[in-house]
């Protein structure tokens, strides 16, 4: 389809604005030649776009067209609170690749959308930096598409609706559960749904791997939790290891490894009770048995004193 950019100002403005949004640096001379109009016409187009941005964005600098004297062209400047910086995009891409949380298709989509916020020249720079990691990316074995499912489950959490799920255990057996979902969390390659059993059989939350939820359905029954008993994701995360739920307990152990800092980072509730000759006595409040797996992984560097 032929578009008469010279005779149709609307098409011309949309084309210029789209290119600004892609991060291109535009000169009046090149635009005038491309659209077969005068430089003065292009200047009026830029002024019109500036007026539009001024109306749509209340604060100067939130989004406006600036002139770069050193490069002799115009560019769209966005306020950083609404757009990722190049460094932020690169950092998020690195975290996504390292997390191994998504199948290949979802990962590619997420990275592509992040890169679309970066100017073409800087986009190539980021693509080069992550190229090898992206090529060698190993998705989780389950291969399940998760993003839509995570969103659907989040709706039940917001509406506080009891749901029925068909859950496939690690031994392959399917079970039916009626649960009160309260949170979605991520840890060690997997997304998890945290929920209380609808029949009240457990006082503590149960954790389900989201990729193992084969079916889910709302019941139109809603639940309420007294404020003092509301689930707190931040406090729960501090106390759970490898997403192994269970009763709240306190573990006291001695640590004589090279980095007590690594222990305190791994166990956010940990407190150093004392230190003698490089041996630290540490106390940590935790949920379930996940802590036992971590303690065993430290070998002779850890000696358990008390667990209750």
Q: List low-pLDDT spans.
A: none
Average the pLDDT over all residues and give the rounded result: 88
Measured between the Cα atoms of the first and last residue, the distance is 75 Å
Number of helices: 10
Which of globular, elongated, flat, extended, rod-shaped describes the shape? Answer: elongated
- Provide the number of structural domains: 4
The CATH class of the largest domain turns out to be Mainly Beta
Approximate helicity band: 25-40%
Beta-strand percentage range: 25-35%
Query: How many strands appear in the DSSP assignment?
Result: 11
| Overall SS class | alpha+beta
Description:
The chain is an alpha+beta fold. The protein has four domains: 9-78, Orthogonal Bundle (Arc Repressor Mutant, subunit A), CATH 1.10.10; 86-135, no CATH class; 147-231, SH3 type barrels; 248-307, Alpha-Beta Plaits (2-Layer Sandwich), CATH 3.30.70. The chain contains ten helices and eleven strands. The protein has helices spanning 9-21, 28-35, 39-56, 86-99, 104-115, 120-135, 147-159, 233-239, 260-266, 290-297, and strands spanning 63-68, 73-78, 161-168, 174-187, 190-197, 206-209, 213-222, 248-255, 271-276, 279-287, 302-307. Helix 4 (86-99) runs antiparallel to helix 5 (104-115).
